[in-house]
Amino acid sequence: MTPELYRRVNELFHAALARPKDERAAFLDDACGADASLRAKVEALIAAHERTGDFLDSPVYGLETHSLSEEVSTNLLIGKSVGRYEVLSLLGVGGMGAVYLARDTRLGRKVALKVLFQSSTNDTRRAGRFRREARAASALN
């Protein structure tokens, strides 16, 4: 997939999810036109998003959430435990937070753990986008 196609699929995916379910087909008819391949990619992401259920409705380790201040070093979590996750290393930092390589101690596998900056947790638009991103990512093998 080219970067441009990836950007377009991602854009349509988020735009479709922002609409009520009964309006999505008409939206995709208009947005994708005759490009059946583009529509199939977007619909596959939507289906994966819907299969993931509501596992994001509660934090991974109880009722408490973690967030980082942008001023705090993102390396502070390395070597620490966050719930059942042991933080191994920093993978990257973006506009919403930091992504770490972590080990799920219950399942014994490596995972990506995203910790949001405090400013992102207070923005409902960003929080919604984070939930959609996480649902889509969870559908990947």
Task: Describe, in plain words, how this protein is organized in 3D.
This protein has 141 residues and is α+β, with helices and mostly antiparallel strands. It has helices spanning 3-17, 21-32, 36-51, 118-121, 124-138, and strands at residues 67-68, 81-82, 85-93, 97-104, 109-117. The protein contains 5 helices and 5 strands, in the order αααβββββαα. A 5-stranded mixed beta sheet has the order 1-5-4-3-2. α3 crosses α5. The relative contact order is 0.13.
Brief description of this entry?
The protein has 141 residues and is of the alpha+beta class.
Q: Give the helix/strand class.
A: alpha+beta
The average pLDDT score comes to 77
Number of helices: 5
Instruction: Indicate the radius of gyration in whole angstroms.
Output: 17 Å
Q: What order do the strands of the largest sheet run in, or round the barrel if closed?
A: 1-5-4-3-2
- Biggest pleated sheet: 5 strands, mixed
